[in-house]
Hints:
405 residues, alpha/beta, Alpha-Beta Plaits, 5-stranded mixed beta sheet, 15 strands, globular, disordered N terminus, disordered C terminus
Amino acid sequence: MRSGRRMLAANTPKDVAARLSSPPERRARQLLPSPLPHTAPSAPQRGPRRGAQLNAADKRSAGKADSRGPPAGLPVAARRRYDSAMQNPDEPILIAALYKFAALPDYADARTPLAALCCSQGVKGTLLLAPEGINGTIAGTDTAIGRVLDHIRQLVGTAGLEVKFSRAAELPFHRMKVRLKREIVTMGEPGIDPRHSVGRYVSPVDWNALISEPGTILIDTRNDYEVAVGTFEGAINPQTKTFREFPAWFRAERERLIAAGTEPKVAMFCTGGIRCEKSTAFLKAEGVDNVYHLQGGILRYLEQVPPDQSKWQGECFVFDERVTVGHGLERGNYELCRACRRPLSAEDRASELYEEGVSCPACHDERTDEQRARYRERHRQEALAAARGETHVGAVQTHAADREL
């Protein structure tokens, strides 16, 4: 150790395998390693507006990756979305939001090789593996993302893998995590399987017509902090804290929403489509058959529908360092509270309860003075590390529990 700096050993795919084979109680506290410095640009260090700028070598590497074209094996629709995302060559990082419901009985065995591949390619983000499939968002160079997607397709099959692409000037994630879960999106309702029963898909170009029909019930299936940032005009906000609360909300509100003897159209939407797969499958299990959902979610709608034809109001919260996006998937105007991971508007940041890295109006009363003191010291250490051009170890950790979808 020199000059008070911690020297971190380079991590390799073998290191990843060793960590993942450690006892569960130890493994739960371990982070998947960061990639070698030469494999990709560094992740952002502080705040949603700050991120590591690409150096000359990184830009050359990213440019070479981009020049090779789209990731191999893309279906025609995904290829069109990739081509659309390529419109800004000054943004060398490719972001892929993906999910697929598929039977993965050996999902635990898939974790180590998938994590090792991501880390060896310099890819960062989060992937969830469960018996029902895969879900997550990753970012890296075009070539790296292509290799990871090839691996995932071998794991879950090519057909039906939902992928949405966007671009960024810098990596929107701090680290790479591959996690094992009971569900890839947690509802907590046994027997709900979107592979066997799901609502009718509605493309973004047809969505406006559906939700404009008299009598259509429009439900936002996301959490309350997401809805506060933006939603479709006329949408019902269930005011849920987590997706687990959605079934209880619907059962409590069903008679008010759907009069006895009627069969109105119920249209639901979420960020990328995965929660709608579960929620429409749940409603069908509850005996509601006239159910629809927005294919590709809000993100595909914002990508494809021009602002002057849009029924979307506000911005869309995303689970990475961009915090929010608007039409064309342009980065939005919100920042992130580092204590509770909620989005912050300019008004929130002007509040006397807001302290950067420590608290915001939403979480100030949820935390103790002792917790705020820890956050304050962490924020100070991150600032000192950034001034030295280093990555502070605490900066890559989630300081509050990961927000549940």
